[in-house]
Design brief:
- The complex is a heterotrimer of chains A (about 400), B (about 325) and C (about 290).
- Helix content of chain A is about 45%, strand content about 15%.
- Chain A has 16 helices and 14 strands.
- In chain A, helix 3 packs parallel to helix 13, helix 4 runs parallel beside helix 5 and helix 13 packs across helix 14.
- Chain B is mostly helical.
- Chain B is built from 13 helices and 4 strands.
- In chain B, about 55% of the residues are buried.
- Helices cover about 75% and strands about 0% of the residues of chain C.
- Chain C is built from 11 helices and 2 strands, in the order H-H-H-H-E-E-H-H-H-H-H-H-H.
- The longest helix of chain C is centred in the first third of the chain and has 31 residues.
- In chain C, about 60% of the residues are buried.
- The chains are: A alpha/beta (about 400), B mainly alpha (about 325), C mainly alpha (about 290).
- Chains A and B meet through helix 1, strand 2, helix 4 and helix 5 of A and helix 2, strand 4, helix 11, helix 12 and helix 13 of B.
């Protein structure tokens, strides 16, 4: 009896494999909820949807922010479909999970190009996954918008069809140029993880300090997968720096352990820390200073930027709360920039849209997205400090004597 | 007893035509993605064949295959990038380097048994991963990884996937021939003896330690070459590819298909690739399904798909001969 | 001097965590001869469950810990009975059982993500507001609890395995199942219990270090891989050895990271592991490994 079961099973497996071949066909693109009413009307059924391919680590070690990135993309698509789509065509998005694997990202890019035949692509936020897959997209002339912040991503590869609507961490040093002078900073310590983003911004900071004659009294590197940073942090604290730059991938733990060892000064971050970083750091997040295009809001009335406010209202209507992580802004911006290009181009042809992208100047959640000078959408940004549970604009705070008051409270 | 001579010529010719015409067939059916998948199948087939020699024939576990995979990949990339060595040559040198490392590792591992051997090889895999991420002078690009190029032969750049497919095909044939000769030689018999009963093998005068080292070295050679094929196929490598999960994937493919056979390795690789592609639409559940499939295969098909199918065939053959009145 | 004290304290905390994890490895090995590759993911589960009970549901800390331990015990028992026992009965090659362990790990990882989400969370303070100063450094009360409870667990386990009837039965079942069966030990039940126990220990490790390191998906994976070094160092299968080994690994890692370079933190752990496996696989306590049949 057992042997018969085995026989049936092996035949079943063989059958499944053959079916799998069939299943390798085009996957059903998921139309976002609001596009459904649009496609129901008879006249638009004849119009081919504009298909955007997206992939990100939905599961695996790097999957922390994918869910909210998806929401940003979905909100944008909803709005676009309610307002005419891409030159009249409804937008649909096909999503794949890279399971935090570069190999999968590489394969998915080929699949999106050759099987799903997408019109545009929103790749993974992880730098390594982009590097493994963007060449395929570029060679296929698919307009691609990335949202990762690694500084060297675009400049290294010089892709004609890849654009970015997120902060490039290289640009952020200018935030500290004059600030350091005003604050009278003489010594700086840096702790950084090994990822592309972090290493690049560390180098930029080192150059800035060299320029200003600021001494880097300690520089430690850590593994972001690690949880205990006492040793490198102890080195930093004993060097008694004026400022600590924490360029770690997830700053919560680092800050908590740093504060415990006795450091009370400002901690410079490379971008807006996420809500759960604030949760982990708790009170220790007082004194976080960072450059950023935007902040997250706990109360919609704190927001006085009209474009951002209307986005927050849409998000709240869809999900019942305000977004806790800024990744949602990036997802939204990327799709909106693409839409703007389609309006300029007047057609959905890939080449036309890519050409049109170079003329895009439009509202973004972080300010103005401007592709006329380079493939980097954002060249200027704000900087903030977190104190008393609020984000305060850095330069204003500084000139109002905030830093002196902060130092006295130590 | 009548011995029906099996005529393999026709099926073999058919298979050859199919394999050679595959890219053009894929194009005709409009499914060019299959060519990319086929390239991955080729390199995984080489790696799993190597693992088959070590585990299927010689019975030695290696849960640190990702380490050899990495040495091949990074070795080839670094040699090409920094020493300007042409790619095909750098691939060969990197595989040989991997082979040497395998031999060196095998020597102390030879005296370890099953569980501790697993631990030691896991540790090896992790050590290689750490070295890649914290390399001296940042030569590997650490976490930022390295870009790689496609190989070129006599001035012809293999930038298209189809050309890489044919290149891969040649590699597969070469390594398949190597494996065939190893397995059907004194080496192969020694390996099987070691796997079945170490003490008896020792008693028969087989230098167990030496043969274990050879088996490891062969596995490392194959896997290293597969790694270099991977590096130049994708165009970018970084340490996060060469993790424990990769090692487990090799083992899964081997077990899925069945050990000690060419068909088994092939089926295992193809099956897992197909499964991955079919569950791609079930985003968020892929790893879960992958884990469940492994457990199901271990419980229900311990000899692997190919092994079970062969078992099936043999049973039918026995039944047929019984019915035709032959003495079985 | 301050740096040395800081490192010392942190090494002790890390060492106790490693000690508990190594202990769970040795427990399973001692009682069933298997390598518990699924434990790191169980640790993550323990941490997340504790977080759910304590922070999300607001239960008092001791109750949350107890509930987590009970749930994890049942989980470990279920894994042993449902999967492992099944495989042994079918006479599957031992290597395949190891592969199954990895597969279970993947399933648990994905489930954890689906149930608990992928965002790292913060464990609420057990004693909010309390700050302890130790030799000039602020120490979390949770850290002291971690060290204290770890040592307690270790002592209890040592007592349990050597002085109680059940513990002796466990040791007998692992030494020679047939002989144990013939003197009336229910080997099947005992194996299940020992897995449950090991799972509880590692869940405890998860809950204890949750407040210190924050609860995330990678919590178990990173610590778990390195804790093997501790287990082997002390003698794989030896309870006291596991503790000593774990503490030693904590110290080695922290001090290498502090005085040499933090780049080599993880590397040193794996080098220690492989060196000991090659040179002295029986570890410090000279534990004779069960011969793999």
């Amino acid at each position: 009896m057992k042997k018969n079961v085995r026989m049936v099973l092996s035949l079943l497996v063989a059958a499944v494999l053959i079916l799998g071949l069939v299943g390798c066909g085009t996957s059903e693109p998921t139309a976002s909820t609001a596009s459904a009413p649009a496609t129901e009307s008879g006249s638009e059924n004849a119009l081919e949807p504009y298909v955007i391919g997206a992939y990100m680590p939905i599961t695996g070690t790097n999957s922390t922010w994918s869910f909210i990135l998806e929401r940003g993309q979905d909100l944008a698509i909803e709005e676009i479909n309610a307002n005419g789509g891409f030159n009249g065509h409804p937008v649909e998005i096909i999503r794949y999970d890279t399971t935090s694997s570069n190999e999968e990202a590489a394969k998915i890019a080929v699949r999106l190009v050759e099987v799903d035949k997408v019109d545009a692509c929103l790749p993974s936020p992880m730098s390594n996954e982009i590097k493994a897959s963007a060449n395929t997209l570029n060679n296929a002339h698919i307009p691609t918008i990335v949202v990762g912040t690694s500084a060297t991503l675009l400049s290294d590869a010089n892709w004609d069809y890849v654009w970015r609507t997120a902060l490039n961490t290289d640009f952020t040093m200018s935030a500290w140029e004059s600030a350091f002078d005003e604050m009278g900073v003489k010594t700086v310590a840096i702790i950084n993880s090994q990822e592309d983003v972090c290493v690049a911004v560390t180098q930029a900071m080192e150059e800035l300090c060299a320029e200003k004659g600021i001494e880097i009294v300690a520089k430690e590197s850590i593994d972001s997968a690690d949880t205990d940073f006492t040793a490198p942090l102890a080195n930093i604290v004993s060097a008694k720096p004026d400022l600590v730059c924490s360029y770690a991938l997830e700053p919560g733990n680092v800050t908590v352990q740093l504060r415990r060892l006795g450091y009370d000064g400002l901690i410079i971050q490379r971008e807006l820390p996420a809500a759960n970083d604030f949760e982990i750091a708790g009170d220790d997040s007082r004194g976080w200073a960072f450059p950023s295009l935007y902040v997250t809001y706990t109360d919609i009335n704190d927001c006085d930027i009209p474009y951002m406010r209307s986005f927050l209202e849409k998000y709240q209507a869809a999900y019942g709360e305000l977004p806790e992580y800024e990744w949602v802004y990036r997802g939204y911006d990327a799709v909106m920039a693409l839409w703007e290009a389609s309006k300029i181009a007047g057609s959905n042809d890939k080449e036309a849209i890519n050409e049109a992208l170079s003329q895009v100047v439009c509202d973004g959640l972080g300010g103005t997205i401007d592709f006329t000078k380079s493939h980097e959408g954002y060249e200027s940004f704000g900087s903030f400090v977190y104190e008393d549970g609020k984000f305060k604009e850095f330069n204003t705070w500084l000139s109002a004597g905030g830093y002196d008051a902060y130092k006295q409270n130590d | 007893m009548l011995q029906r001579k099996k005529n393999y010529l026709l099926p073999a010719a058919g298979a050859t035509v199919l394999v050679l015409a595959f890219p053009f067939l894929a194009n005709a059916f409009g499914y060019t993605y299959a060519i990319t998948l086929a390239c991955y199948v080729q390199l995984y087939f080489i790696a799993v064949s190597g693992y088959d020699v070590l585990f299927g024939y010689c019975g030695q576990i290696n849960m640190g295959l990702a380490g050899f995979y990495a040495i091949g990949a990074y070795g080839s990339a670094i040699l090409n990038e920094y020493c300007n060595i042409p790619i095909i040559l750098s691939m060969i040198i990197a595989s040989v380097a991997s082979c040497v490392v395998g031999a060196i590792l095998a020597y102390p591992c030879g005296k370890l048994q099953f569980h501790f051997l697993t631990l030691a090889t896991i540790a090896f895999g992790n050590i290689i991963n750490q070295i890649l991420s914290h390399s001296p002078g940042g030569i590997t690009g650490n976490f930022n990884g390295m870009y790689t190029q496609r190989p070129s032969l006599f001035g012809f750049d293999m930038t298209s996937t189809t050309s890489y497919y044919f290149f891969g095909l040649v590699c597969v044939i070469i390594f398949a021939v190597i494996k065939y000769h190893v397995v059907h030689s004194k080496l192969g018999r020694a390996f099987s003896a070691i796997r079945d009963n170490v003490k008896a093998a020792d008693g028969m005068g087989i230098n167990v330690r030496l043969y274990k080292v050879i088996a490891f070295a062969i596995c490392a050679l194959f896997t290293g070459f597969a790694g270099s094929m991977y590096a130049h196929l994708v165009g970018f490598i970084s340490p996060d590819t060469f993790t424990q999960k990769q090692s487990v994937l090799f083992l899964t493919m081997l077990i899925f298909g069945g050990t000690t056979s060419f068909g088994g390795s092939l089926i295992g690789v193809v099956a897992l690739m197909l499964v991955t592609e079919s569950i791609r639409t079930l985003t968020g559940y892929q790893t879960l399904i992958y884990g469940v499939i492994i457990i199901l295969v271990v419980i229900l098909l311990p000899k692997g798909v190919f092994g079970e199918l062969i078992g099936l065939k043999n049973r039918f053959a026995k039944k047929n001969r019984k019915h035709s009145g032959e003495v079985v | 001097m301050l740096k040395f004290v800081t490192l010392f304290i942190s090494a002790t905390i890390l060492g106790c965590t490693y000690g508990l994890i190594s202990l769970s490895y040795s427990l399973i090995y001692k009682s069933s001869g298997m390598m518990a590759f699924v434990n790191p993911d169980l640790m993550t589960w323990g941490a997340f469950l504790g977080f759910t009970f304590y922070t999300l549901m607001g239960l008092p800390y001791p109750i949350a810990v107890l509930l987590t331990c009970v749930v994890m015990f049942c989980m470990g028992f279920a894994i042993q009975k449902g999967v492992v026992r099944n495989l042994i009965k079918r006479n599957v090659t031992p290597m395949y059982i190891t592969l199954t362990m990895f597969a279970m790990g993947y399933i648990l990882q994905n489930l954890s993500q689906l149930i608990f989400g992928s965002v790292p969370r913060k464990f609420d303070s057990i004693i909010p507001g309390l700050k302890i100063q130790l030799a000039g450094i602020q120490v979390q009360p949770e850290a002291i609890i971690c060290v204290g409870v770890s040592l307690l667990i270790m002592a209890l386990l040592q007592f349990f395995m050597n002085k109680t009837k059940l513990g002796t039965a466990m040791r007998a079942a692992s030494m020679d199942p047939m002989a144990a069966e013939s003197v009336g030990v229910d080997v099947s039940l005992i194996s299940g219990l020992s897995w449950g126990l090991s799972t509880t220990v590692i869940a405890a490790a998860g809950i204890l270090c949750g407040p210190i390191y924050s609860v995330s998906m990678v919590l178990g994976a990173n610590l778990g891989a390195k804790a093997f070094a501790g287990a082997v160092l002390g003698g794989y299968g030896n309870m006291i050895g596991a503790i000593i080994g774990g503490l030693a690994m904590g110290f080695i890692e922290t001090f290498v990271s502090g005085y040499i370079s933090s780049d080599y933190k993880s590397l040193i752990a794996y080098i220690v592991l492989i060196l000991f496996l090659f040179v002295k696989p029986t570890g410090i306590m000279n534990e004779r490994a069960i011969q793999d049949v």
